[in-house]
Specification:
Distance between the termini: 24 Å
Number of strands: 0
Number of helices: 10
Oligomer: single chain
Helix content: 55-70%
Strand content: under 5%
Structural class: mainly alpha
Length: 214
C-alpha cells in the first residue's frame, strides 16, 4: 500500500473511532448463553475497544444483533471490527462484516455515522488501485463491499478503467479467481454471495464482460 493510500485509510479508521468511540461499551451486553457466557459478555462490554483482539470479536460478529446485543452495540464494536478486518486478521471475515453492516442498516444511520462508514469503505476500495492483494483478499473485499450495499457497478467500472499496475494485476487475479466457477457453475466462487443474490448478479454480469479481456 502506498503511503498516501495507507494514510487515507488510517484517517478513515481514526474517524470511525472518533464518531463511535474507542472506550468500553459502558453498559451491560446481553446475549444468549449458547453464544457467549456471562464472563465473555462482561469482558466485551468492559474492555476498551482497541484492546479487543480478532479472535474475540470474530466470535461476537457472527452473533451480533441476533443472539448478542443490538444495533447500538454493533456500532460500538464497528471501528475495531473494521480495523481488524482490513489488517487481514483471519478471525474477522470482511464478508461477514459487510453482511452485518447491511443488517444494521448503516445507510440509514444519522448523517455523520453513515458518512463515516461510507468513507471508510471507499478508502478501502481505493487501495485496490495502488496495492497488490492476493486473489482471496480481493474476493473478500469485493464481496464484503457488495454485501454492505455499496454501488458495485460504479466501483467495478472505476477499477476496470484504472491504469495503475496494481489495479491491473488485482483485476487479473480477481477474474482468474472466479473464472472457473462462473464458467462451470454460472456463479461467483465466494459462498457469502448467498446473502445477496442481487449483488452477485451485478458483479457476475460485470465480470463476464471483463473475462474477455483477461
Amino acid at each position: 500500500m502506498t503511503d498516501t493510500s495507507k494514510s487515507d485509510l488510517d484517517r478513515a479508521i481514526t474517524e470511525m473511532y472518533q464518531v463511535f468511540g474507542d472506550g468500553p461499551l459502558g453498559r451491560q451486553l446481553f446475549g444468549c448463553d449458547c453464544c457467549a457466557d456471562s464472563q465473555t459478555l462482561d469482558r466485551w462490554a468492559q474492555t476498551p475497544l482497541r484492546q479487543l483482539n480478532a479472535e474475540e470479536l470474530g466470535s461476537y460478529l457472527y452473533s451480533a444483533m441476533s443472539t448478542i446485543g443490538d444495533e447500538e452495540d454493533f456500532k460500538h464494536f464497528l471501528p475495531r471490527l473494521f480495523e481488524l478486518a482490513v489488517e487481514d486478521a483471519l478471525s474477522i471475515e470482511f464478508e461477514q462484516l459487510g453482511t452485518q453492516l447491511s443488517r444494521a442498516g448503516w445507510i440509514r444511520w444519522p448523517d455523520r455515522q453513515g458518512s463515516t462508514v461510507r468513507a471508510a469503505l471507499e478508502e478501502l476500495w481505493k487501495t485496490v488501485a495502488v496495492m497488490e492483494y492476493d486473489d482471496f483478499a480481493l474476493d473478500s473485499i469485493v464481496c464484503g463491499l457488495a454485501l454492505a450495499g455499496m454501488d458495485m457497478p460504479v466501483l467495478l467500472t472505476a477499477w476496470e478503467k484504472a491504469s495503475t499496475p496494481a489495479s491491473k494485476t488485482n483485476l487479473t487475479r480477481f477474474v482468474e479467481h472466479n473464472r472457473a466457477s462462473l464458467t462451470e457453475k454460472r456463479r461467483l466462487s465466494n459462498a457469502f454471495w448467498d446473502g445477496s443474490p442481487a449483488q452477485e448478479v451485478r458483479v457476475a454480469d460485470w465480470l463476464r464482460n471483463a473475462m474477455s479481456a483477461y
